[in-house]
């Protein structure tokens, strides 16, 4: 059967639509869409409010949107701001502005250059944060790279965890294969200036438990650290360490007790 | 209370690393509800149902050379991997006996092919008949129960318990983990975890 040619919606100025199935949906002014939307392309340069769920190939948000339902998309770029009340399912998500999601986020590649906050769980193959991320649930990835500020209320579970500390980072529990936590070294002039006013002690990671095969930690505060090979760098304050193969502790680190198991 | 094992003891006993455990959790090879958090003197610790997790890890370790982690995850997940199988193929591949298929067909009418959920029913029925734990009449009771509770069975995480007291028998279908206290005369004849039955079935079908 031949597929019928789908129509486009383009809203310039202010308008409403009932939703439905379309090829391209473009909002240049302000739009209110009352139902579910299925389309190939969704682009919002103004402000849009969608009452239903949306399924689309690409979504580009340059203005602001509010999705009341679930969002299913292959490629999503948020340059402005976006609120999603439901779950987000995507292949690639790029947040360059700000975004809040009340449900879970599932993706293959998640890149955050602005700020994102998620009330549910996050799972993705790759997560790359250079900005700010807040997650109320758990966060799972094959590779988790952060150079910025994150707060995870649950478990951060990833194959490779690579953190360059910038301000205060926090997770309740961290587990994975290779975990590296380092302080940013190449401070720019601007950062040095900020540092001059703010105390230096802010660059720090805190967690209750950190477990992994190979760990390198700097400026980390934790109750328990467990692993095979552990290297504790400067600025750490750890109550208890349990290791299997090897343990090195920097002279500028504070460790309560250590045990080889 | 079920027999629990701490994370540290588990790694020791199963001889795996933290990384492996976390990778398998990520790949959904180990169900979320097996991670039980309890407070201890060192703060919060994670515990696991001992028999289940050791069995599961043993399986993962023996199968992981032949199957990819994603294929393993499919096997352990409660959702079906295949849609249907013909009656002919079922008996040819010796997955269930002809007796069980006949009983099923008598109850539901003749089936040309079986859906995954029907296969689970057949599989449980067959194994109860084969072990001699139930007779034909009780087998029909089981078919009736599974038929009426199809939705419960489908959503997995169920346990099936067969109890007999002074010759009177009945089935119990309960969410996992079941925790039954029986009076002394009552005898637990059979106890199945449906999620485990599904795994076994998937293994046989693959």
Care to describe what's here?
The complex is a heterodimer of chains A (261) and B (206). With 261 residues, chain A is mainly β. Chain A has two domains: 86 residues, no CATH class; 157 residues, no CATH class. Chain A has one helix and 22 strands. Chain A is elongated. Chain B is of the alpha+beta class and 206 residues long. In chain B, 49% of the residues lie in helices and 21% in strands. In chain B, the strands form three sheets. Chain B has a three-stranded antiparallel beta sheet. In chain B, strands 7-6-8 form a three-stranded antiparallel beta sheet. In chain B, helix 6 packs across helix 7 and helix 7 packs across helix 10. The model of chain B has no long low-confidence stretch (mean pLDDT 83). Classes of the chains: A mainly beta (261), B alpha+beta (206). At the A-B interface, strand 17, strand 18, strand 19 and strand 20 of A face helix 2 of B.
Q: Order of strands side by side in the largest beta sheet of chain B?
A: 1-3-2
The major sheet of chain B is characterized as: 3 strands, antiparallel
Query: Any idea what the shape of chain A is?
Result: elongated
- Residue share in helices of chain B? 40-55%
Strand percentage of chain A, roughly? over 45%
Q: What is the CA-atom radius of gyration of chain A, in angstroms? A: 22 Å
Number of domains of chain A: 2
In oligomeric terms, what are we looking at? heterodimer
The SSE string of chain A, one letter per element, is EEEEEEEEEEEEEEEEEEHEEEE
Structural class of chain A: mainly beta
Distance between the termini of chain A: 66 Å
What is the end-to-end distance of chain B? 35 Å
- Total helices of chain A: the number is 1
- List the uncertain runs of chain A: none
- Mean of residue pLDDT of chain B? 83
Query: Which stretches of chain B of 5+ consecutive residues score pLDDT under 50?
Result: none
Protein name (chain B): DUF4004 family protein
Organism (chain B): Fictibacillus phosphorivorans
Pfam family, one (chain B): DUF4004
InterPro entries (chain B): DUF4004 (IPR025063)
């Amino acid at each position: 059967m031949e597929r019928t040619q789908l129509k486009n919606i383009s809203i310039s100025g202010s308008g409403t639509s009932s939703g439905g199935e379309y090829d391209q949906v473009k909002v240049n002014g302000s739009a209110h869409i009352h139902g579910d939307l299925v389309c190939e392309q969704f682009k919002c340069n103004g402000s849009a409010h969608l009452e239903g769920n949306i399924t689309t190939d690409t979504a580009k948000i340059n203005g602001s949107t509010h999705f009341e339902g679930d969002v299913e998309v292959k490629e999503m770029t948020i340059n402005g701001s976006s609120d999603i009340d439901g779950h987000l399912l995507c292949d690639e998500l790029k947040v360059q502005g700000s975004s809040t999601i009340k449900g879970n986020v599932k993706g293959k590649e998640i890149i955050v250059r602005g700020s994102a906050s998620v009330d549910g769980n996050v799972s993705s193959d790759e997560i790359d944060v250079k900005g700010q991320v807040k997650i109320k649930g758990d966060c799972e990835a094959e590779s988790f790279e952060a150079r910025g500020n994150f707060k995870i209320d649950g478990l951060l579970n990833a194959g490779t965890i690579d953190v360059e500390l910038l301000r205060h980072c926090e997770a309740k529990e961290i587990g994975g294969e290779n975990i590296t936590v380092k302080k940013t070294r190449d401070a720019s002039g601007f950062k040095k200036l900020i540092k001059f006013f703010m105390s230096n002690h802010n660059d720090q990671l805190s967690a209750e438990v950190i477990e992994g095969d190979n760990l390198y930690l700097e400026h980390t505060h934790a109750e328990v650290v467990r692993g095979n090979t552990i290297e504790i760098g400067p600025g750490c304050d750890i109550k208890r360490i349990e290791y299997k193969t090897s343990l090195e502790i920097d002279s500028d680190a504070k460790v309560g007790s250590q045990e080889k198991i | 209370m079920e027999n629990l094992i701490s994370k540290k003891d588990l790694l020791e006993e199963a001889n795996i690393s933290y990384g492996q455990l976390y990778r398998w959790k990520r790949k959904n090879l180990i169900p979320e509800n097996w991670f039980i958090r309890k407070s201890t003197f060192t703060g919060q610790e994670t515990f696991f149902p001992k028999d289940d997790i050791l069995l599961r890890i043993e399986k993962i370790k023996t199968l992981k050379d032949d199957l990819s982690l994603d294929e393993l995850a499919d096997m352990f997940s409660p959702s079906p991997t295949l849609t249907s199988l013909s009656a002919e193929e079922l008996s040819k591949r010796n997955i269930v006996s002809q007796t069980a298929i006949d009983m099923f067909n008598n109850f539901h009418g003749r089936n040309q092919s079986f859906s995954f959920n029907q296969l689970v029913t057949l599989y449980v029925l067959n194994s109860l008949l084969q072990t001699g734990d139930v007779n034909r009449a009780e087998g029909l009771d089981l078919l009736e129960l599974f038929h009426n509770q199809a939705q419960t069975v489908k959503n997995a995480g169920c346990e099936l318990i067969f109890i007999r007291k002074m010759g009177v028998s009945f089935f119990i279908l309960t969410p996992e983990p079941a925790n039954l206290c029986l009076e002394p005369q009552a005898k637990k004849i059979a106890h199945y975890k449906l999620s485990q039955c599904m795994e076994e079935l998937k293994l046989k079908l693959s």
